[in-house]
Amino acid sequence: MRDSTLEARGLVERFANGADRRSLLVGLTAEGLLLADELVPRHTANESRLLANLPPEELAAFDCVLRKLPIAIGDGGQSAA
């Protein structure tokens, strides 16, 4: 969902960035936090279920790839090679 949809549903709110007036910050509302508190354990349980049958060496390789993704995303994928 886009921020505006989440904002319209009352799950997030936008507020001024005191460090940079050109940008806005987005944060969870009380209702958004309640929803996150409900969904995160369900997501974690599903993730555990999906990974439960992978052998340790495959889990380690998967973890390595996941740790590299933010770096690749941040530089447009240039360092992923």
Describe the structure.
- It is a single chain.
- By secondary structure, this protein is an alpha+beta fold.
- The protein has one domain (3-74): Winged helix-like DNA-binding domain superfamily/Winged helix DNA-binding domain (Arc Repressor Mutant, subunit A, Orthogonal Bundle).
- The chain has helices at 3-8, 30-51, 56-74; strands spanning 12-16, 24-28.
- The protein has a two-stranded antiparallel ribbon.
- The chain starts with a helix and ends in a 7-residue tail after the last helix.
Largest sheet: 2 strands, antiparallel
Which strand order spans the largest sheet, edge to edge or round the barrel? 1-2
| Beginning-to-end CA distance, first to last residue | 31 Å
CATH class categorisation: Mainly Alpha
Report the strand count: 2
Uncertain runs are none
CATH architecture: Orthogonal Bundle
Helix content: 55-70%
CATH superfamily: Winged helix-like DNA-binding domain superfamily/Winged helix DNA-binding domain
Mean pLDDT: 89
Percent strand equals 5-15%
Shape: flat
Radius of gyration (Å): 18 Å
Computed structural class: alpha+beta
Q: SSE string, helix = H, strand = E?
A: HEEHH
Question: If helices are DSSP runs of H or I spanning 4 or more residues, what is the number of helices?
Answer: 3
- Integer count of domains: 1
CATH-derived topology: Arc Repressor Mutant, subunit A
